[in-house]
Amino acid sequence: MKKSHSHIDKIGWRFDNTYAKLPNNMLSRLAPIPVKTPEVVVFNNSLSKEMGLDFSNTSNEDLALIFSGNL
């Protein structure tokens, strides 16, 4: 189930992925393998708020998709 990234944009992540800027001879780019049935076991909402991330309108299903890399 592929969902839109618009919801993720509202969470508050501001990635600075310096690894993506490395020269190609320093890494191997691979397509991620989707997780078949991801699920959330524990989520620390207090910590996410301290980090400036807002998951208050995010379902457990969406959290599982986000953190498994399926979204």
Write up what this structure looks like.
By secondary structure, the chain is mostly helical. The chain has a domain at 1-9 and 38-71. Helices cover 30% and strands 0% of the residues. The chain contains three helices and no strands. The N and C termini lie close together (8 Å).
Short recap of the structure:
The chain has a domain at 1-9 and 38-71. It is 30% helix and 0% strand. The chain contains 3 helices and no strands.
List keywords for this structure.
single chain, globular, mainly alpha, 71 residues
Helical amount among residues, as a percent range?
Answer: 25-40%
Ends apart, CA distance between termini: 8 Å
Individual helix count: 3
Percent of sequence in beta strands: under 5%
By helix and strand content, what is the structural category? mainly alpha
Number of strands: 0
Overall mean pLDDT score?
84
Shape summary: globular
Low-confidence stretches: none
Q: SSE order in H/E notation? A: HHH
- Gyration radius over CA: 14 Å
Largest sheet: none
Topology, please?
Layout: H1 6-11, H2 45-50, H3 60-68
